[in-house]
Design a protein that fits this description.
By secondary structure, the protein is an alpha+beta fold. The protein has 4 helices and 4 strands; from the N terminus they run ααββαββα.
């Protein structure tokens, strides 16, 4: 008899906890379980919406900033990860006659690079380079790499 009462009390405690978690106003066991089912279903839909938004942002994330600082530039690149992306960016910088003096690269969820770039010492005409030209070269290198990635699938 005591074990039956203990089981009933344990069930009541669990239903009370479930009722509090789902913000249910019901008292009946079946209604509490139904409210819990609906609550879990809504959470699942919210999770799917967040996941879809995250995937969309990851697919369309691309930001390239180039700022003129002294004789060089500060380059900030944020975009979707891809194989050899760093190589393509560095090649684009080199093609413009520039050298990376210092760089910081991270690649956890997306590719992120911050670099200080200066003209080669022997190139005097490179000082006249505009930040827009360098930015355009970097965007083309990233777009070229991403179009190759998409065509392989």
């Amino acid at each position: 008899m005591a074990s039956r009462i203990q089981k009933r009390m344990a069930l009541r405690r669990k239903l009370h906890i479930l009722r509090n978690l789902t913000h249910s106003k019901s008292v009946k066991k079946s209604s509490i379980l139904n409210d819990a089912f609906i609550y879990i279903y809504k959470l699942k839909l919210q999770l799917e919406a967040i996941k879809n938004e995250y995937l969309f942002l990851m697919q369309h994330l691309q930001e390239v900033k180039v700022e003129k600082v002294g004789k060089g530039f500060v380059v900030k690149v944020t975009c979707k990860k891809g194989e050899d992306l760093l190589v393509k960016i560095l090649e684009a910088i080199e093609e413009k006659g520039m050298t990376v003096v210092q760089a910081s690269v991270a690649c956890n969820y997306f590719f992120c690079m911050e670099a200080i770039v200066e003209a080669h010492h022997d190139d005097r005409d490179q000082e006249a380079m505009d930040a827009k030209d360098l930015r355009q070269a970097l965007v083309e290198a990233i777009d070229q790499k991403q179009s190759v990635d998409v065509s392989t699938f």
